[in-house]
């Protein structure tokens, strides 16, 4: 967003660490909770749009559970490449698609999906209304996301971290968006909250579209 160089932050070292951890232990923490909540709603034959999918954990798990197809849109070239190779390694290459770029800029070119997920993504994006608004528009049935709990001490840590990023001349910044604002925006698009797990740092949400 606004000239942020995601490739500089989310590069090969981070990709290797995430991929090794996933292959060794599977999904963990809030990602595991999000996947379990989605599986409880049923994913058989569903399509998935995973915004900022990283190495593609959510896509791999849902395709393995019977989802029909997945599309991962990520602003890191290294993550897109890793997600594509891992999907092929797991035998999902013909059902998994990947696109590199800023989802907000690409949204008009992306087809709606039954399930849309953003796992620790909006904390990496300054314009929350654009990212959440454009992504929730693409969700036919379920919308799930993980982002930081809005606590004063988390905001303080983020502020200090952003100062360090500025000193190292990095364009990337972390963001703590107000939970009420995110929730209100999602509900305004015709969704209701089904699951909310509030941890120490991360909170996991699952919304479903209200039947007309």
List the helices and strands and how they pair.
Layout: H1 6-9, H2 12-25, H3 29-41, E1 47-51, H4 57-64, E2 69-74, H5 77-89, E3 96-100, H6 103-106, E4 113-119, H7 128-136, E5 139-148, H8 152-167, H9 179-187, E6 191-198, E7 202-209
Parallel strand pairs: 1-2, 1-4, 2-3, 4-5
Antiparallel strand pairs: 5-7, 6-7
Helix pairs in contact: 3-4
Task: Label this structure with key terms.
alpha/beta; 212 residues
Task: Please provide a brief summary of the model.
With 212 residues, this protein is of the alpha/beta class. The chain has 9 helices and 7 strands. It has a 7-stranded mixed beta sheet, sandwiched between helices.
Q: Estimate the strand proportion.
A: 15-25%
Largest sheet: 7 strands, mixed
**Total beta-strand segments:** 7
Structural class: alpha/beta
Account of the protein in words:
- This protein has helices at 6-9, 12-25, 29-41, 57-64, 77-89, 103-106, 128-136, 152-167, 179-187; strands at 47-51, 69-74, 96-100, 113-119, 139-148, 191-198, 202-209.
- The chain is of the alpha/beta class.
């Amino acid at each position: 967003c606004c000239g942020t160089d995601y490739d500089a932050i989310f590069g090969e070292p981070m990709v290797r660490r995430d991929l090794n951890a996933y292959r060794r232990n599977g999904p963990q923490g809030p990602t595991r909770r999000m996947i379990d909540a989605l599986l409880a709603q049923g994913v058989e034959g569903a399509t998935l749009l995973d915004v900022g999918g990283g190495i593609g954990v959510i896509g791999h798990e849902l395709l393995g559970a019977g989802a029909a197809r997945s599309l991962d849109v990520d602003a890191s070239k290294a993550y897109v490449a890793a997600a594509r190779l891992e999907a092929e390694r797991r035998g999902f290459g013909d059902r998994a698609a990947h696109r590199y770029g800023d989802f907000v800029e690409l949204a008009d070119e992306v087809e709606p999906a039954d399930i849309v997920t953003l796992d620790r993504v909006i904390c990496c994006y300054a314009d929350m209304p654009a990212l959440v608004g454009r992504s929730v528009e693409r969700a036919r049935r379920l919308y799930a996301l993980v982002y930081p709990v809005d606590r004063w001490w988390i905001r303080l840590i983020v502020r200090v971290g952003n100062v360090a990023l500025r000193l190292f001349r990095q364009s990337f910044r972390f963001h703590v968006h107000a939970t009420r604002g995110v929730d209100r925006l999602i509900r305004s698009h015709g969704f209701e909250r089904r699951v909310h797990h509030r941890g120490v740092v991360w909170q996991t949400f699952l919304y479903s579209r209200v039947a007309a």
